[in-house]
Amino acid sequence: MNLSPRILATRVSKTQTDSLEALCLEWGIDKRFRLYTSTDEDLSESVWDLDPVEFTDVEETDLVTYLVESLWLTEISIEEIRTACGLYTNGIAETPAAALHKPSITLLGSLGVLLTEALNRIQTINPTDQDAPEARRRIEQRLHHLAKLPGLSSVVQDLISDCRSSYLELFSAAAQPLRPAEK
Predict the structure, then answer these.
(1) Residue 83's pLDDT is what?
(2) How far is 161 from 74, CA to CA, in rounded Å?
(3) Which of 7, 32, 103, 143 has minimal Cβ neighbours within 10 Å of its Cβ?
(4) In the predicted model, is pLDDT for residue 148 greater than 80?
(5) Higher-confidence residue: 33 or 155?
C-alpha cells in the first residue's frame, strides 16, 4: 500500500531558527513502521540530529529511546503512536477532512502542516490519557494562531472552526460521567 507519511506531531524546531518540525510515520524498510523528523512542508526526510527509527511494536526499546532522545515524547504519547500505527495499517494517512481540503491546506505552506496535525490527532488523542489535556491545549493554541492569520479562505476558516469543535466534543464527551447500564 503506497501511503503518504502521516503527521503525528509538530513543534518549533530544536535546531533551526524559524522552522517547524514534524514527526512523521511511514512504512519501514526492515521493520513494519518508521518514524522520522521533517522540517519540509512536503514532509520529506530532513538531515537531522538523530537517524530515523524503524519498529514493529511501539514498546520496542529503539523507538522509546528515539522518542526520549529527540524530545518527541514531550509532544506525543506512546498510545497516540500505537493508534496512528493502527490507522496507517488500515490505509489511513490523514483524516477525511484533511484529504478533502488538501489543496486549501497546501496553500498554507508549512502552516498547513500544523492544521494537518490538528486534524490527524482528532483520530489519535484519547481524551482520558493523563497527557491529553496538555496536548489539546497546545493544539488549541496552534489553531487559535492559525485562525488569526490574515487572508485565510473561508474553506480554511471553516476547517479550523470544525477542527476546534471536534476537539471540544471529544473532550466534553470524555468528561461526562459514565452512567450505569439501564436494566
Answers:
(1) 96
(2) 26
(3) 103
(4) yes
(5) 33
